[in-house]
Structures are given as structure tokens and as C-alpha cells.
Amino acid sequence: MFASVFVLILGLCHCSQESNQSHLGQPQLFGPSEALVKRVVEFNCKLLTYPKNESILLQLYKEDNHDNLLSEYTSLAGEVATFPMIIKVNHEGNLECVAKAQNNSKIGPTVSNTHHLKVIEPVKGAQLVVTSGPVEFFEGRTLELQCKLTAGNHVSYTWLLNGQPVSQSPHHRATDNQLLINRTTAADSGSYRCVATNTFNNTQVFRSNSSEVVITVKDVVSNPDISFSVLKEDSHYYFAVFTCRSIKGMPPVTFSLYNRTELVANTTVDARNATFRVPLVLGHLGMLQCQANNGDQVVYSEWIPLEVVPVGGPVVLHYDSDTGENYAVIGLRLYCKAARGTHPRYQWFLNKTLLNDSGSFYYVQHQPPEQSIVLLSVGRSSAGTYHCEVSDSFDSSTTISSKRKYLDKEVVNRLPVLVVVVIFGCFTFLVLLVSVCCWAGVVFRRRQYGEKSLLSLEMQRVIAAYEGELDVSQYDDDADVVNTARGGEFDQASEASVDEWPQIGRKKKTLEDEAVEEH
Ligand SMILES: *[C@@H]1O[C@H](CO)[C@@H](O)[C@H](O)[C@H]1NC(C)=O
Ligand SMILES: *[C@@H]1O[C@H](CO)[C@@H](O)[C@H](O)[C@H]1NC(C)=O
Ligand SMILES: *[C@@H]1O[C@H](CO)[C@@H](O)[C@H](O)[C@H]1NC(C)=O
Ligand SMILES: *[C@@H]1O[C@H](CO)[C@@H](O)[C@H](O)[C@H]1NC(C)=O
Ligand SMILES: *[C@@H]1O[C@H](CO)[C@@H](O)[C@H](O)[C@H]1NC(C)=O
Ligand SMILES: *[C@@H]1O[C@H](CO)[C@@H](O)[C@H](O)[C@H]1NC(C)=O
Ligand SMILES: *[C@@H]1O[C@H](CO)[C@@H](O)[C@H](O)[C@H]1NC(C)=O
Ligand SMILES: *[C@@H]1O[C@H](CO)[C@@H](O)[C@H](O)[C@H]1NC(C)=O
Ligand SMILES: *[C@@H]1O[C@H](CO)[C@@H](O)[C@H](O)[C@H]1NC(C)=O
Fold first, then answer.
1. Which of 260, 267, 273, 502 could pair with 245 as two cysteines, CB 3.0-4.6 Å apart?
2. pTM of the model
3. What is the percentage of the chain residues whose pLDDT exceeds 90?
């Protein structure tokens, strides 16, 4: 702006002085637009119109700093000025050339157009600095890295993690020479390196690699799971073997086993699980908990009761069925259940042969400690006598067997016929019951009606004697009351008959059971 006003004023001067034939035209400055630092570069300044016999001084300045003369040249015969320069970083900016008549104050100076120079200093000495603190820390913290250079301008930075560019995410932000990672996770661990580059003339690329810095983001150990199994040794020593296991967390981890009052055992392992052997007497021994810590905070498992009850009581085998088309039974579920026992081991037998976990026609589903289930497809190969046996998982010396049950296609399909018979029997019984009730009701009502009409006549006479007159509407209301009362009685009777249904159902069940137990 200032320059253009200056030029305009010069122009005016030029007009007014034109008659004298002694004025300077605008000089022209040219040279490279980009230069490497410390290199020698030449700029030129040329005057197209100038007064004869005047020595002209041409000077090179930066646009905004005329105090600092960069170079000058005296032109006597209007030759082109050359400004050889050793480039420094601070030469970058807008350059301009000023022309002055050296010994003639009547001739005003003129200024050239500006010429932009970009100075490139090759990058050097990249160094990665962790500005956020230690290189090993727990997840969730912020990691801040800086790439520092000993030299270089117009730099672009790339960040490498294990040789690959750092992934972009809302938690990763690279600005200028800084990389900021909010809420770090274990995935941010690795070897970091920064690479600084700049380019000269679009052709020459300068690069500086930093050395590597290894960052370790430790994941906090997760809440452990606690479980235990029971071991028996030398026929009368029992142990509970506790396992504490965390899904994630950077080892080493210190696991501790606590009961309600004190530390039972502790260990530091280079893994995410630990086992503890605790001597045991059978029975209920209180609650236990695992604690885990890998340096950040202590995390806890739930409390579990240390309860070891040997198997006992009757072992019950029962089943239910799946029906296909035509109500034919196609699949069976056999359940085996022991009355007691916290660590049972279930075994299934067909014709006294032990069944594996699965076979061509069956599949065993252990759901300890409650029960074990066999899923069967009904067919020729699955026919036979089934039973199950239960023993303690830590001690096979006592084994309790269920009753044996013979099952084949005919047996399981006979059931619907039985059900039909039972239901038909029940229905007949119901019809009979209702008929009897109705008959009894009719007889009862007839007798009661007779009594009631006698009674009301009596009442009428008594009231008439008291009040002399009788209100007809009141009399009608009383009749209604009697009717409603009778209606209530009838409802109660029918409810009673409905109440009998579950009993009938139960009777049906026992019939079924007996039918099966026969076989
Ligand atoms: C220019 O200078 C030369 C000698 O130096 C002189 O002879 C000549 O007259 C001068 N011309 C003008 C226009 O002053
Ligand atoms: C211009 O003036 C300088 C001193 O200011 C002198 O040395 C020089 O000879 C003069 N040049 C001309 C062409 O008059
Ligand atoms: C980091 O977290 C702060 C505050 O939670 C947020 O303002 C900033 O944008 C986050 N930066 C990145 C890179 O996610
Ligand atoms: C700049 O690059 C051009 C080609 O793109 C080349 O001709 C020229 O010599 C280069 N200049 C310098 C100073 O290296
Ligand atoms: C800098 O890193 C690049 C890969 O990013 C590699 O090709 C180059 O050799 C490295 N240079 C130095 C000096 O380590
Ligand atoms: C906890 O364990 C210690 C020894 O292991 C035992 O002496 C103490 O009775 C236990 N406390 C409870 C509440 O079970
Ligand atoms: C186990 O606990 C005791 C008492 O708290 C402690 O002194 C010891 O260092 C712990 N051992 C391990 C392996 O953590
Ligand atoms: C942790 O579990 C693995 C596999 O489940 C097992 O090999 C290893 O021995 C266990 N470590 C400890 C200390 O219990
Ligand atoms: C089991 O024994 C019965 C006879 O008791 C026999 O019919 C059936 O085929 C046998 N089943 C198997 C799988 O051996």
C-alpha cells in the first residue's frame, strides 16, 4: 500500500519534472524465487529510463526494512545492476530495488516492484522428546511427543509407530511438531520415531529421522474371576485349588486370595492367572475373594463361598420329550440330579456301557453342580436301559446310581394313549360330578324355597303388627337379597369343582409315572 502510494507520488513528480528531462524510471528487480541457505545467489536490477551523465545508485532492501541494506551497485552508463548474495534465513521475504541519482538531489528516487524470496534451510538433527513424562505408564493417560530440530524451516512432520504412520483417530492429533494422544490404550505402545522433511524447488527433499523412543502403555489388570476345584491326596488330605484369572492386564500381576478377615495367600506372576492350594476340611468354610494389582489399582473378584459337600441322597433320573409330526416322540431329554453335592461328576450309561460326551444319537450336557442332561434322538440305536451315576469329582470312591429306565420308541410313544385314557376318565368323572351336583342343587333349592316362603309370610305378619302398614317396594328388595344370596352359593359350588382340577392333574401324573416305572 505504502509502496503503491510512493510509486504514485513518484509518478506525479515524474510528470512535473518531465520537462527537465531528468527523471528516473521504475527499476525492475528479478532473480530466483526460492533459494537454499548459505548458497550464493544473484539478483538483478535494471532501469529502463534514466538521465544521461548521472551516476545512479541501485540498492537492494527488504520491503519492510530499509535500514538494513542488503547490497548496492553504482550504475554509470545505465548497465544492469547485479547483487550477489550469500543467502541467510532472514533474507526470506519481499525484496525491492531502490534507484537514486547519486549527485543530483533534484531527481527523486524510485522503487521497483517487490520480489518474493523463499529461503530453504535443510532439516537437520531431528530429536524425539516425550514432553508428557515417563515412557512407561498406564492406559488412559495423555501422551505428548515433540519433534525437535537443530535446523530447518518450512518443515513437515510425519510420525511413525513401529515403522508405520501413526493411525488417525479422534484421540490422535498431530499439530506442527507435536503429537498428542488422548486416552492412550495398550495399542499405542511401541517404538515411536518422527521424520522431518522439507523440499527445495520441488525437486530436492531433505529428511531427518529422529532416533526411536519406546513407549509402553500398560493396561490395567481387569477384575479377576475366581473359581476353585477340590483335590484329594493320600486318601484323606483335601485341598482347594483356587484359580484367579484376569482377561487383560500387563504382567507382572500380584494376585492375593482373601477370606473375610485376612490374607490367605499371595503371589506375583508373569501371567494373568494364578493358582493357590489351600488345605481343606469338608463343609462350609466361608467366603473367599481374589484381588489383582499390576501397579495402578487393586481390582477385586466377586466373593464365592468355599463350600465342599460330598454327593449324597437319591439320584433322580427323569425325562421329558419333544414331539414331531403326528404327535410321535422324536427326541428325549434325560435329566440326572443328585440331592446333595457341590462337586459332582455325572456319568451316563446305556445298557451298562458308559456314554461319552456325544455319540451318533446323543449329546451330553453337563450343568454342574445342579444336573446333567442327555439329549437323545429316538430310534433303534438309542433303545435300551439308561441310568446315571454320580460321584465326587475329587473322590471317586463313593458312587451313587439312579434307577434304571428302559426307553424305546414304543415306550415313549405309548404316553399319549395313556394321557388320552386318563383325560377321558377324568372327563367322564367330571360329567358325572356335574350331573350329581345339578340334581342335588335342584332338590335342595325346591326344599329351601318352600321354607323361605313360609318364613317371609311370618315376617310380614310381624312387621304389619308393628307398623300397621307395609311398604311394597321394601318387600321387593328383600326378595332380591334372597335371590342374590342363593346365586352366591351356587357360584361357590362351581368354584369348588374347578379347584379339584390340579388334583386330577396330579393323579394323572402319578398314573404316568407308574406306567413308566413298570417297564
Ligand atoms: C556529459 O559528460 C561529458 C564528459 O564527461 C561531456 O562532454 C558532455 O557534454 C556531458 N553531456 C551532458 C548532456 O551534460
Ligand atoms: C558525485 O559525487 C561524489 C561525491 O559525493 C563524487 O566523488 C563523484 O565524483 C561525483 N560523480 C559525478 C559523476 O559527479
Ligand atoms: C483431548 O481431550 C481434550 C479434553 O477432553 C479435548 O478437548 C481434546 O480435543 C482431545 N484431543 C484429542 C486429540 O483427542
Ligand atoms: C529447479 O527445478 C528446475 C526443474 O524443475 C530446474 O530446471 C532448476 O535448475 C532447479 N533450480 C535449482 C536452483 O536447482
Ligand atoms: C529414515 O527413515 C526412512 C524410513 O522412514 C529410512 O528409509 C531411512 O533410511 C532413514 N534414514 C536414516 C538416516 O535413518
Ligand atoms: C481366614 O483364614 C484364616 C487362615 O487361613 C483362618 O484362620 C480364619 O479363620 C479365616 N477366617 C474366616 C472368616 O474364614
Ligand atoms: C504377600 O503379602 C505379604 C503381606 O502383605 C507381603 O509382605 C508380600 O510381599 C506379598 N508377597 C507378594 C509376592 O506379593
Ligand atoms: C495360567 O494359565 C495357563 C493356561 O491356562 C497355564 O498354562 C499356566 O500354568 C497358568 N499360570 C499360573 C501361574 O497358574
Ligand atoms: C440294549 O439292550 C436292549 C435289550 O435289553 C437291546 O434291545 C438294545 O438294542 C440294546 N441297546 C444298545 C444300544 O446296545
1. 273
2. 0.58
3. 53
| pLDDT tens figures, 144-160 | 999 999 999 999 999 99
Q: Cα(67)–Cα(442) distance, rounded to whole angstroms?
A: 132
pLDDT at 451: 56
Residue with cell string 511401541: 190
Task: Specify the pLDDT at position 77.
Answer: 80
- Please state whether beta strands 213-218 and 136-138 pair in parallel, antiparallel, or not at all (unpaired): parallel
The pLDDT assigned to 516 comes to 43
How many A from CA of 370 to the centre of ligand 9? 29
Q: Pick the ligand that lies closest to the CA of residue 244.
A: 8
Q: Whose CA is nearest to atom 5 of ligand 7?
A: 263
For ligand 6, atom 14, which residue shows the shortest CA distance? 286
Of all protein residues, the one whose alpha carbon is nearest to atom 2 of ligand 5 is: 209
Of ligand 1's listed atoms, the one at least distance from the Cα of 53 is: 1
- Concatenating the DSSP letter of every residue in 141-204 gives S-EEEEEE-SB-SS-EEEEEETTEEPPPBTTEEEETTEEEESS--GGG-EEEEEEEEEEETTTE
What residue owns the CA closest to ligand 6's atom 1?
Answer: 259
Ligand 1, atom 14: closest residue by C-alpha:
53
The pLDDT value given to residue 370: 85
CA of 209 to the centre of ligand 5 (A): 6
**How many angstroms separate the Cα of 373 from the Cα of each of 270, 356, 359, 452?**
39, 13, 14, 65
Q: Which ligand is nearest to the CA of 39?
A: 4
Which ligand is located closest to the Cα atom of residue 208? 5
Q: Please check the confidence at residue 518 and state whether its pLDDT lies above 80.
A: no
* Burial annotation 131-156 (CB, 10 A radius, 16+ → b, else e): ebeeeebbbebebebbbebeebebbe
